[in-house]
Amino acid sequence: MARGITESDVHTAADELVAKGERPTVERIRAHLGTGSPNTVTRWLETWWNRLGTRLQPARPDLEDAPAVLAQLAGQWWEAALSHAREAAHRELAEAEQSLAARRDALEAKSRFVADELTQMRSERDVALTGERIAATQATELQHLVDQLRMQISELAEQRDTALRRADRSEAARQQLDVRLQETLETAKSEREDWTEYVRSVENRALSDVDRARQEVKELQVQLSKTSEQHRALEKQLRQDIQAAQSAATTASQSADILRGRCDALEGQLSSLRDLPTQLEAALKRSDGARLANNAKPKRRRSS
Known about the structure:
This protein is mainly alpha-helical. The protein has a domain at 7-56 and 67-113. It has helices spanning 7-19, 26-33, 38-56, 68-224, 228-295. The chain is rod-shaped, with a radius of gyration of 70 Å.
């Protein structure tokens, strides 16, 4: 485990630097020791300088037997050397303090810069976390929307398939109606021809009866000239025949009118049957349009 430097380590390093002819400074002592905090080295270097004079005093030469002038000069030199050493030590100390102050200011500026960067990074982190929460919320809402759209697409596809099946059934029904209409038209045409032929035959029979009645009237008129009794009898019979013929003609005419009415009714039914596919197709379109309009209404969004 690494241990901190001691006062003895700093003093020894300073003495070794002085022995090499170098001025002991904080940086030189740290470089010489290879470790040490600048504050610790400065504190122990200051004690080294404070004790330097005391340590040098034993080396002061003994000038008791020297002349007074020489002793005085030696004392002056010694005091000058001590003063110079103190000034040098104070300068070194001042330089060390200035260096430490500059480093302290740099460290404080760096600390403030790091604090500002940390604050900015925290702010950016908070913004990023907020953005992440917003993005997660939006992603959840988008997922809900996607699910709803998928459900709507599925419902629309099912409705489309149902509409197609219904359209197929409608087309099949329309084809069947076309077939039935064609059959009905052919049947009606056949019945109309039959009724026309029947009316024609009835009219022919009526005309034949009228002609026959006229012929009989002529024969009766010829016979009336023979005798009055025969004439009255024949006139009576003729009148009866005429009335019967008129009744038959009226009946035939009434039958013809009835047949014409039935033909007109059949033609009306045929006309209605011709319009029936168009009416059915229009009704199917209206039904499909109403159902699509109801399905196109927007559904209320479920709260997530």
